[in-house]
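Work Package 3 (structural annotation) set out to generate three-dimensional models for the target panel prioritized at the project kickoff. During this period the team completed the workflow that converts sequence records into discrete structure tokens, so that structures can be stored uniformly alongside our sequence database. As a representative example, we reproduce one entry of 103 residues exactly as it appears in the project archive.
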Amino acid sequence: MLRSVKHAQAAESGVDPRASALGAAVSRLRRELAGHPAQFADRDIAEDELAVLAAMVADGQTEVARMRRSLLLIAGAIGSVSALADALMQVRTAVDLFGPVPR
């Protein structure tokens, strides 16, 4: 029942709750990455892909395959930075809300 209530609220407001969750997760990871003092080789890649995800949410053009590609690139770029693990997991969880990659 909770799921149907959320969908009804989303339909009334015109806002996709999955996109809202992804936007919040991306914002959190961007903030934490910006505040992280260490410089690492692939930081620019992570920042670029986070910008791609943020743009998708803003435009309402969420392509599952592209979101998953961005997630892989971000994870590869910052996966070894344990301080960012929780925020990265939040992004992954939000991307998973959109389902698997269509075949």
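The CA atoms of residues 34 and 87 lie 12 Å apart.
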